[in-house]
Amino acid sequence: MISRFTHMLSELLDKRIEDIPQATRERATWMVADTMFSSCFGFAAPELQGYLARVGVPQKDEKHSIPVLGTGLYTTKEHAAMLYGTAIVSNELDEGNQFAKGHPAAHMLAPILITAWEEKATGMEILRAFVIGYEVASRLAYASNMNDEMHPHGTWGNVGGAVAAGLLMKKDKQAIVEAALLAASLPIATSWEAAVTGMTVRNLYTGVGSFLALQAWTFQEAGFCSSEHVVEHLWGTILSKGIRYELFESDLWAPPLLDKNYFKLYPSCRFSHSAIDALLALQKEERLDASQIASAKVETYSLAARLNDPNPVNALSAKFSIPFLLSAILHGHSLYDSFAGEIFSDRSVRELAQRIEVTEDPEMTAMLPNKRAARVTVTDHQGVTYRAFVDAASGNYDQPFPREELLGKFASMLAVCVCSGDQTNEIIDQALALPDVNDFGEWLERLAASTGKRGAGSQ
After folding, report:
1. What is the mean pLDDT of residues 394-402?
2. pTM for this one?
3. Can you tell me which residues the record assigns to a coiled coil (predicted)?
């Protein structure tokens, strides 16, 4: 029986690439591509451009050796960890896992990318590290069920990132356990409020967490150590209300939790997606127009019910506002165009958002973590009500997007840094060929050259 985190970790470290089902490898390949392209898109954010202007250089040198995809720049290992981790989550398009209650892959990419670059890893070595690191992080998150007032970025994901890096460095099992315990000792003290109030430090959480995942190896190699009981103490009493130890073991590798991830097409907090899906289903049936609507009500699970502020102050807080998101959709706007400029400040969008109520339905909360449900009820000016219900958001492992929709998402994210459609298709093909890569460094250089039209400070 697995009675402790380290026992689970030890079992997972014994998994070889041959132990990873082919379907899991394929899913992991798409997840790496999705996360990598999310970073390309994220580097266009103003604060990331400002950061790059300070730490990026146009020519590779001994110190600045890590390419920053989509920018034509290079940076140091330390800044690359923070840049990639931050960029991935900046547009709310990165994958996630409802059992982990967060975004594991966002914490895997930078430690894997940087270490694989240094170690000249193969694609198969990367996939093994990604799958095992993802499982470690997700299981820690699932079992500890961190306090809801904390934001998950920069916390349990750091541990998976450290494990993945150790696997790529071909460290022995004892060393990886030691580094994992060090990473488990160094979560950031995060705040959920940062997200809903639009404070972009929330994005930095993942960047700093990625940095700490790599630093865990510097600390381990220097001789620092942490207690085997750190998970039980820190994660079981301080960061949560108690660990459910059986979740370290329940269905372990049957299948890997990576197989239960979700992909995102809507650029907003995942907790808003069930409400969005319900509204879109309603619109498809009734063709509702914003001018017809007197009010709307969203009933959903507890975590989503917190996204109830109708007055977002900036792009990030708007991505965490169900009233704003639904109002923008009811006005016929694409969410991709709704977080800046005229649509963001549109008076009609803002007024309707004030009339959209978001409340918790305890029965839907009780369905967690397996189902994330929402019911949307719209009332028009004649008093007629329209209602739609979904028990889970689209893109979930049991409601997967068609391959073509994910390819379209990849192309859209790459549009900020690639000139032509043909070039975009070539880059996507290269990314999805990761299992066949023999030298990750050469592969990454090719991708960097193909996506390098945008430098820091460009528009």
Report:
1. 96
2. 0.96
3. none
